[in-house]
Amino acid sequence: MGAVQNRRKSHYPWTKDGGQVRVDAGDLNHDGKPDFVVTNFNDEYHSLFISASSLLYSDRTVASRLAAYTKSYVGWGTHFIDYDNDGNLDLLIVNGHINQVIESTRQDVKYLEPPLLLHNEGNGVFRNMWEQAGPIFQAGHCARGLAVDDFNNDGGVDAVFTRLNSTPILLRNNVGQEHAWVGFELQGTKSNRDAIGAKITVVASNRRLVRWITGGGSYLSSHDKRVVVGIPDRNLTTVDAEIRWPSGTIQRLSNLELKQYHHVVEPSRNR
């Protein structure tokens, strides 16, 4: 999609049980273009690439603190989520090593690794929320698949991740209601039915909040195709939105009520 400035050499982990590098895209710096996070092997960092200009991406792995948080981890699932609905995309990552005896040769690398909930401070820098996020984020796991979904339909994005030779863990979001939100469930007609590739732009006061519906997901996992957009302005009761469908159709929606999901069907023509 574009050139990456100062890109480091990276050896992506492929393992006998099918594990591999994971990628997610989201508008982290509010410029309307997708930025990328890439999981990696220990000592190689999970990487962050931010859109800098037309067809150029800059490596912000170190500046965002992602390098410091992930140097010793092997990542299996990652997803941009606005877990507190403040309008800024945060980052959820699950980790777990593939070598059960790694600790016999490395003191700084563990077989069981904690998941990461990284809060976007709004300036391109992440803060590790391990203390506030709960005991699951303070313990090690051999995590594999990650799936994100608002399973109780309250606007707070939840998550579930699987663990090797253990039970899955369901994470309920208890802070998503701190701000208002608007949800979208798209249904393509000319486009694919799940509207994968659709771009949603929500206009909230003087901010344009951009989200995409992406396909795939984590290792042996798939995310909920619904999109939740956090609305930081507490004075708003409605917002406007524009949907650019994969077919190229542009659909504009006005006065969408907050704190609810809106089922939107792709129109037969632009409107």
What is the molecular shape? Answer: globular
Intertermini distance: 29 Å
Q: What does the radius of gyration come to?
A: 19 Å
Number of strands: 19
Q: Biggest sheet, strands in spatial order?
A: 1-5-4-3-2
Poorly predicted spans: 1-19
Write down the secondary-structure element order.
EEEEEHEEEEHEEEEEEEEEE
Major sheet summary line:
5 strands, mixed
Structural class: mainly beta
Mean pLDDT across all residues, rounded?
A: 91
Helix content: under 10%
Strand fraction band? 35-45%
Number of helices: 2
Question: Could you please describe the fold and organization of this structure?
Answer:
- The protein has 271 residues and is mainly β.
- It contains two helices and 19 strands.
- It has helices spanning 66-70, 130-133, and strands at residues 3-5, 23-26, 35-38, 47-53, 56-59, 75-81, 90-95, 116-120, 126-128, 143-149, 158-163, 169-171, 180-187, 199-204, 207-212, 227-231, 238-244, 250-257, 261-265.
- The strands form five sheets. A five-stranded mixed beta sheet has the order 1-5-4-3-2, with no helix packed on it. A four-stranded antiparallel beta sheet has the order 6-7-8-9.
- The radius of gyration is 19 Å and the shape is globular.
- The relative contact order is 0.14.
